[in-house]
Specification:
Strand order of the largest sheet of chain B: 2-1-5-4-3
Helix content of chain B: 40-55%
Order of helices and strands of chain B: EEHEEEHHHEEHHH
Largest interface: A-B, 82 and 67 residues
Helix content of chain A: 55-70%
Protein name (chain B): Clathrin adaptor complex small chain-domain-containing protein
Number of strands of chain A: 0
Strand content of chain B: 15-25%
Protein name (chain A): Adaptin N terminal region-domain-containing protein
Oligomer: heterodimer
Organism (chain A): Lipomyces kononenkoae (Yeast)
Distance between the termini of chain B: 42 Å
Structural class of chain B: alpha+beta
Largest sheet of chain A: none
Shape of chain B: elongated
Structural class of chain A: mainly alpha
Number of helices of chain B: 7
Shape of chain A: extended
Distance between the termini of chain A: 91 Å
Number of helices of chain A: 43
Radius of gyration of chain B: 22 Å
């Protein structure tokens, strides 16, 4: 008996959720847990198929629990749907819970859910309705949104506020999926702002607030109603939302600002809720209500925010700093009055507060505080104990901020550049092993060396120490690229160039990155020319031997580099390698005693002339663009006539094509070579800029030109579309080149001649920019309140300075938000996809509406046609009796009628009503006629 | 979107509740849970309750052994989100009566139901404290009414077969042999059905 009871009741007492959870908790290790869960899931697989709804729903509940822990339950989607459609509320609740947890955009059973949801939404039990709405908020898909928008619109007018508020809130989700619903439901949404129940009004404000973030223009008409709520409501939850909503509206309607400021000021002064206070200040700032001349408003905001720092609450400090960070853009001086509390946050134990504070401090430092602030930040970077190392991202952040605040406005705040160079050296040391930041420190050192002449020897000394320091090479190699450049460019300032050369040339290849290596190879000849080319030391035998030793070291180093995989390193090293080999030979050729005290010409003249002619100055990145086009130069005019192709070649073309195919196969290997050649040409042009050498020696020039010419000729020979030069022409062009050919620059009337033209012989005219444009402005920085007067070279540029700085300010203003916003461009999974709403304009003509009208028109046409057809049928009945006899006559009549129609059309419209009737009759006649004809046939 | 997700996390990093107001795949969800857990668990007590994660903000607060975590949009108000979290904890405290982690573990669905009454589509839907609980108790009452009915109808055929009870007609209290009062039997049966384990664990 009792067994029978047990058996019958068995489904009731299968493993409950409780058992499942207890079971999982009882498992000690991961393996056991996995096993237990696997078996539980396979049990559930059976249970969800059960006919007993209790068992089924319990299984679904268990699955929902497991889903929370990352176990897939999408396979049970259909069963979830079954449970959702249960008539029992307890089961329905479970079903909806599971659906909310597990359904996604790709759940296919959602298609089946529409009717069920419709039924639940129409249920007489308001709890069912509420459940359906809650569920829908999570599982809504575009098609569900489309199908259920109407039902939800009804629910917004439900008798129970409980349902109304839910319906209003879910509408936002509907709009996201189906923006067209916005048009039909907007009036009702607007109504809900006047709902007697505060919860419904609050829900409506929430929805509109979210909508306004996407496309504020649509919701401006609601401003009066919203303003009314703002001034009358005392519900802080809603006030926060409504203020946020106004923050979205204010930027597009400037008149709102004057309206909003009094009530918001009132709230700021009276409220005790920090969240509301914070939201108000945020609204003023991000709503664009704080322009530069709103001194009073800004003072109030800044003053109120100070309260945040006087509390011990870390959260308030954090949001306070966030707000200051926004205000500082327009009112740096006001924020600076609170520098004391902000500086305190710089040493806060909480890193997120520190980061915000450091971000802010960059705007607040001045000549007096810079020293102190940098010192405090540097101290943070030095780890006190081994285990107290700050996270890397924070250290990078701090270094960046230090560099930022020092280099701001071309070093406006730095008074002592020796100190700054020391800071850079220290930073390079502290940040050993921190990725990438070395390059930024190095660039800063380079910048100082270039711009601040007075501290240049200092900077060069620092760079030299870095280059010779083995530690730096291992721990912070990225800084060396810049240090290497500095020691090379300003080799004049080196105390001991010999040791630098030794250090540089003793580096094993590939210990440094390629770009650093390339810089080193460029720096070595510079230092060498400075060291060996100096005329202060007499060329005694011992000196010659010393130089020879160095030269040979360099040759060895360059030889190693010349096999580098990096094209830049390879090229630079190969070029200088030849030069240094020549130099070594020249030194060896000298007598073995002190009889000749002059240095070889290759060193004293050639080498020095390569590097020491002009000094580099910082050039504005925009200077290039500002160089005016010289008078008389038309950039659009073609100076090379396009080639004229003869038209009689058509029949030859197929032949040629075959030839090309063959040759291309043959040349594929050669093409690779030529590609490499083009790369090296590029590198060369780059280098000619960096070396800014004087004129290379004549012989080299000649050789090079000859080589290029031959290369070109070879290429032309391979090119089937290129008409080969006859030997005569070649010799002629060669001759003409030697005769420095002005005559060869023949007129454009002869395109063939142009082709033959020797390009190298075209004289290159020096472009004298100074004569045609405003002179290059070399402005030394003049700064007020700069106690120690330091010359900082400003960037060279063209045109008036103001225009430049104006542009710069604009750019900075643009850059600032984009720096943070740049990453937001990426698709984030946490971002709601609201593209539909962003482009949805309520004022724009409704496409649907237009479509509908068109459909209506079509319908009308079809109807008319049908009527005509009906009439025609009537006529036909008549006609069958008469027409047989009259056939020929009728045909004539038709013709006549047609003629009349034509003439009618040309005439101005008279008596349109009559005409229409006539036309219809005529057409009917025609139809009748045709039908008759068809019958006869 | 005000709140993107709410996660309840134990101090050991076990998920006790995860409610998503965005539609995400299981994989994306697990990734976020994992990232946010490490971030939050790494915080010390003296630190502020806000974090930045990707383009969103994470607002968290620790109550006893549980971390309550909410993800919000970067433009949203952090302070009010803390209020929402606090409100949720308050509601649960009232519902379960001095809530503790075990309550939430064994009645996880109830925790979801409460959250569904507090937030909808990520927005706060009811600012009145009493209203939320009233709705939940309404729903529970409906569930229980159904449960009572059903339990009774399910057991009826067997009750009539129990010796000595064959005369029982289904009305009035059920005389169960060996049990003190009929009402306890019913309520305990009900308790096991709903899955409440409190009396087992704390009784």
């Amino acid at each position: 008996m009792s067994t029978q009871l047990k058996k019958a009741a068995a489904p009731l007492f299968k493993k409950s959720l409780h058992d499942l959870i207890r079971g999982i908790r009882a498992c000690n290790d991961n393996e056991a847990t996995d096993k237990f869960i696997r078996s539980a899931i396979s049990e559930c697989r059976q249970e969800v198929l059960s006919q007993d709804m209790d068992v089924k729903s319990m299984a679904v509940l268990k699955l929902a629990y497991l889903q929370m822990h990352g176990h897939d339950m999408t396979w049970a989607s259909f069963n979830v749907l079954e449970v959702m459609s249960s008539s029992k509320f307890a089961q329905k609740r479970i079903g909806y819970l599971a659906a909310m947890q597990s359904f996604g955009a790709d759940t296919d059973v959602l298609m089946l859910a529409t009717n069920m949801l419709k039924k639940d939404l129409a249920s007489s039990n308001h709890l069912d309705v509420a459940l359906a709405i809650s569920g829908l908020s999570n599982i809504v898909s575009p098609s569900l949104a489309r199908d259920l928008a109407e039902d939800l619109l009804k629910m917004m007018n439900h008798s129970k506020p409980y349902v109304r508020k839910k319906a209003v809130l879910v509408m936002y989700k509907i709009f996201l999926q189906y923006p067209e619903a916005l048009r039909t439901s907007f009036p009702r949404l607007r109504e809900k702002l006047e709902d007697p129940e505060i919860a419904v009004v609050s829900a409506t404000v929430n929805v509109i607030c979210e909508l306004a973030k996407k496309h504020p223009k649509n919701y401006l008409p609601l401003a009066p109603q919203l303003f009314n709520i703002l001034t009358t409501s005392s519900n802080n939850w809603m006030l926060i939302k409504i203020i946020k909503l106004f923050a979205s509206l204010a930027p597009i309607e400037p008149r709102l600002k004057a309206k909003l400021i009094p009530p918001i000021t009132n709230i700021i002064q009276t409220t005790t809720a920090m969240s509301l206070l914070y939201e108000c200040i945020n609204c003023i700032v991000s709503g664009g209500m704080l322009s530069k001349d709103d001194e009073q408003l800004a003072t109030m905001c800044v003053g109120k925010l100070r309260i945040f720092f006087e509390e011990t609450d870390q959260n308030l400090k954090f949001v306070g700093l966030l707000a200051y960070n926004k205000i500082v853009l327009t009112h740096p001086l006001l924020v600076a009055q609170n520098a004391d509390v902000i500086m305190d946050c710089m040493d806060d134990p909480d890193l997120s507060i520190r980061e915000r504070a450091v971000e802010l401090v960059v705007y607040l430092v001045n000549t007096d505080t810079l020293f102190e602030v940098v010192k405090r930040l540097m101290l943070q970077l030095i780890p006190q104990t081994r285990d107290q190392v700050l996270p890397e991202h924070y250290r990078i952040e701090v270094v960046r901020r230090i560099l930022n605040m020092c280099s701001k406005d071309t070093y406006a705040n730095v008074t002592n550049f020796e100190w700054y160079v020391a800071v850079l050296v220290d930073l390079a040391k502290i940040t050993e092993g921190v990725k990438d930041i070395g390059a930024e420190i190095g660039a800063e050192l380079q910048n100082v060396a270039v711009r601040v002449r007075s501290v240049r020897d200092n900077a060069v000394g620092a760079a030299a120490r870095m280059v010779t320091d083995k530690d730096v090479m291992i721990k912070n190699p990225r800084v060396l690229k810049y240090a290497g450049w500095v020691v090379g460019e300003y080799a004049l300032y080196l105390d001991n160039p010999e040791s630098i050369l030794d250090a540089m040339s003793s580096i094993k290849p590939q210990t440094l990155s390629h770009d650093t290596e390339a810089v080193y190879i460029q720096a070595i000849p510079k230092i060498y020319s400075q060291y060996a080319g100096t005329d202060r030391i007499p060329w005694t035998y011992s000196r010659a031997q010393e130089v020879l030793r160095l030269t040979e070291n360099i040759v060895v180093y360059l030889e190693k580099c010349s096999t580098s995989m990096d094209i830049e390193v390879q090229e630079r090293s190969v070029e200088f390698l030849e030069l240094f080999r020549l130099i070594a030979l020249a030194i060896k050729d000298r007598p073995n005693d002190d009889s000749d005290l002059t240095s070889p010409a290759l060193i004293s003249q050639v080498m020095t002339s390569m590097f020491n002619i002009w000094e580099l100055n910082p050039v504005s990145a925009k200077a290039q663009k500002r160089i005016p086009v010289p008078e008389g130069l038309d950039l659009d005019e073609e100076f090379n006539q396009p080639a004229v192709y003869s038209e009689s070649e058509d029949e030859e073309e197929t032949l040629l094509r075959e030839l090309v195919m063959k040759q291309q196969e043959q040349n594929s290997a050669k093409n690779v070579n030529s590609a490499a050649a083009s790369v090296s040409v590029k590198a060369k042009s780059k280098k000619s800029r960096t070396t800014r050498s004087g004129t290379p020696s004549e012989s080299e020039d000649e050789e090079e030109m000859e080589r290029r010419r031959q290369e070109r000729r070879r290429r032309q020979a391979e090119d089937p579309f290129y008409i080969l030069e006859s030997d005569k022409v070649v010799s002629k062009s060669r001759k003409s080149r030697r005769n420095s050919s002005a005559s060869e620059l023949s007129g454009p009337d002869d395109p063939m001649k142009n082709e033959k033209l020797d390009i190298d012989s075209i004289p290159i005219m020096k472009l004298e920019i100074a004569s045609i444009a405003a002179p290059v402005t070399k402005k030394k920085a003049k700064r007020r309140n700069q106690p120690a007067h330091v010359d900082i070279a400003k960037e060279e540029t063209f045109g008036d300075d103001e225009a430049v700085s104006g542009v710069d300010v604009d750019e900075i203003a643009q850059r600032r938000p984009s720096a943070r916003g740049a990453s937001t461009q990426k698709k984030s999974i946490l971002r709601v996809d609201a593209r539909g709403l962003e482009n949805y304009d309520l004022d724009s003509p409704d496409e649907d509406e237009a479509d509908k009208q068109e459909v209506e028109r079509f319908k009308a046409e079809i109807l008319e046609a049908r009527q005509k057809a009906a009439k025609a049928a009537e006529e036909e009945v008549m006609a069958t009796h008469i027409v047989v006899k009259k056939k020929k006559k009728k045909a004539k009549v038709v013709k006549k009628v047609k003629k009349r129609e034509e003439t009618d059309e040309t005439k101005p419209k008279k008596e349109p009503a009559e005409k229409k009737e006539e036309n219809i009759e005529e057409k009917a006649d025609e139809n009748g006629e045709k039908n008759v004809e068809a019958q006869e046939a | 979107m005000a709140v993107q997700y709410v996660i309840l996390l134990s101090r050991q990093g076990k998920v006790r509740l995860a409610k998503w107001f965005l539609t995400l795949s299981l994989k994306e969800k697990s990734k976020i849970v994992k990232d946010v857990s490490t971030l939050v668990l790494g915080r010390r007590t003296k630190m502020c309750n806000f974090l930045e994660y990707k383009e969103s903000k994470v607002v968290y607060r620790r109550y006893a052994s549980l971390f309550f975590i909410a993800g919000i949009d970067s433009t949203d108000n952090e302070l009010i989100t803390l209020e929402i979290i606090h409100r949720y904890v308050e509601q649960m405290d009232r519902y379960y009566g001095n809530v503790c982690e075990l309550d939430i573990i064994f009645n996880f669905q109830k925790a979801y139901y409460i959250l569904d009454e507090l937030l909808l589509a990520g927005e706060i839907q009811e600012s009145s404290k009493r209203d939320v609980l009233r709705r939940i108790s309404q729903q529970d009452a409906l569930e229980e009414a159904e449960g009572d009915e059903e339990k009774f109808s399910r057991l009826m055929p067997y009750i009539s077969q129990i010796p000595g009870l064959s005369s029982y007609d289904g009305s009035g209290p059920l005389p169960v042999p060996g049990s003190g009062s009929s009402s306890t039997s019913f309520s305990s049966a009900r308790a096991s059905r709903v899955g409440s384990g409190r009396d087992v664990y704390y009784g």
